[in-house]
Write a structure and sequence with these properties.
The chain is an alpha/beta fold. It has 14 helices and twelve strands. The chain has helices spanning 10-13, 17-32, 54-66, 78-81, 88-104, 114-122, 145-155, 176-183, 204-210, 226-235, 250-257, 285-296, 303-312, 315-330, and strands at residues 2-6, 35-37, 46-49, 69-73, 108-111, 129-131, 162-167, 189-194, 218-222, 238-241, 262-265, 280-282. The radius of gyration is 20 Å and the shape is globular. Keywords: Transferase.
Amino acid sequence: MKILLYLEGEKLLNKSGIGNAILHQERALDLIGIEYTTNPNDNYDIAHINTYGPKSFFLMKKVKKQGKKLIYHGHSTKEDFRNSFIGSNTLAPLVGRYLTYLYKQADLVVTPTEYSKSLISGYGVKCPILPISNGIDLSKYVKDESKEEKFRQHFNINDNEKVVICAGLYFHRKGLDDFVKVAEKFPDVRFIWFGYSDPYTIPKEMRRIVNGDHPKNVEFPGYIKGDIYQGAMTGSDVFFFPSYEETEGIVVLEALASRQNVVLRDIPVFEDWLDDTQVSKGKNNEEFAERIQGILDGEINKKDEGYKVAESKSIDIVAQELADAYKQVINL
């Protein structure tokens, strides 16, 4: 059995959750010894398509014509397309119909959570829909003093400074404006947002915030990965993720794997796999500030319980779940 892992627009998506997800898929197949290719011109038995552009569309058509098996990865929904790029709310119904068409062509849809499964099922998709986490490589997020020192040096962080971080694109959906509003309540705490979006693709309000209309304690350093980012995950004081809509949230898994205290918006995607013993949830900025203050004061510490969630979604477990999915499809 040989799998085609397909990602269209790799250079564009390598800073996104989908870009990270396909790296996890490659790592998973390496772990369990299933042969794969990323070249659609190679021979393969199952096409596992992760993207939705024109090349993905025509590949899907080719796969169906050849009678090969097709898995579509349900990373995206019309719900998480809203409140992102310029014009996204207007286009969301059209995007929803297009995604529905693509997912209906599949022999199996893989999607990260029960929540995203429920959304896709609600579109009228009748093929099997299997929730499999994007997974997390726990080894990358082990506490490492050298990585934490790189993080502190990069941002000139003093020993007595408190730091709250987030990671994501510059979207309202990600809660970027709420991140800034909460930061205003903590003028002596540094708030750092990791991530980047082309300023020409995001609404004026988000562009204005990133370009300088924010408190002095908020920083937008752009897209940073590797040692500095991993050092930030383990070496900061809080991971604050006020997103309004996700299909899973890979950065949340990264924070949990880092044994970090996590503050999240209380939204449906987290209901069935994260509870109040593992993370701190809030419904508004006042509750977010209250949870963050409790962590900074040492009154809240959910690191160990949160880490257990990351362990349950480790890449080796996900690898076996993917292998089972491929076997299920090949036998259809």
